[in-house]
Amino acid sequence: MSKAQSKYWTAFYTKPRNEKRVGERLGDLGYEIFCPVRTVLKQWSDRKKKVKEPLFTSYIFARVDEVLRQEILQDQGVVSSVFWLGKPVVVRDSEIRAIDDFLNENPEADAVSRIFHEGEKLQITDGPLRGETGELLKIKGTKLILTIESLGFSLVAEVAKSRVQLVS
Asked: pTM of the full predicted structure?
C-alpha cells in the first residue's frame, strides 16, 4: 500500500479555545489540517463584529498515517486522538468535503453534541450535502437537525424541507 493510500482523516481533541491556533501551527508545519469555522456576530458594549469560531469546539481534523498522527500528538495544543471502538476515529473524505461545502453554503451554521433520539432517516436530495443520510432529531420551522454518524456531532442549519426525502 502506498503512503498516500494509507492516509486517512481523523480527529484530535485540543485544549479549550486552541482549535484555530493549533490548526494554523500544524498547517504551517506542512500537515493537512481541517478546522471548520463558522461566522458569528459578536456584540460588545460599543460595537458588533462578525468573527470566525470553530464549528466543533476542541476538535481539529487531520489527514494522517500512523507516523503523522503520532507527530501531531506532540503538539502543545493537542490533548489526544479521538477514539472509536479502541481505534483512532476515521472520518470519510466525503464527510470532510460535505462539512466544507455545508459551511460554504451556511457560514453561520452551528454544531451541537449528538443526542440520540429515535427518528426518521432522511436523505438530503439537493445542495452541498446531497446524498448524505442522517437521522432526524428535530424539526423547528425550517431548521432540521440531522446526525452524521462518524463525527459524533449534529449540524444545525436552515435547510428547506423540500431538500430532504424520507428513506424507506
From this structure: 0.64
CB 17 within 8 A of CB 35: no
Asked if residues 91 and 53 have their Cβ atoms less than 8 Å apart, the reply is no
Grid cell listed for 29: 508545519
Element (H, E) at 74: none
| Burial grade of 58 (CB within 10 A; 0-12, 13-18, 19 or more) | middle
> For residue 145, what are the β-bridge partners?
138, 156
The rounded distance, in Å, linking the Cα atoms of 124 and 27 is: 32
**Nearest-angstrom CA–CA distance, 14 and 79:** 5
- Detail the DSSP E strand segments found in 20-90: 32-34, 37-43, 48-54, 59-64, 78-81, 83-84, 87-88
Is the distance from CB of 11 to CB of 34 less than 8 angstroms?
no
Hunting for cell 442522517 — which residue is that?
134
Residues lower than pLDDT 50 in the chain: 1-2, 113-117
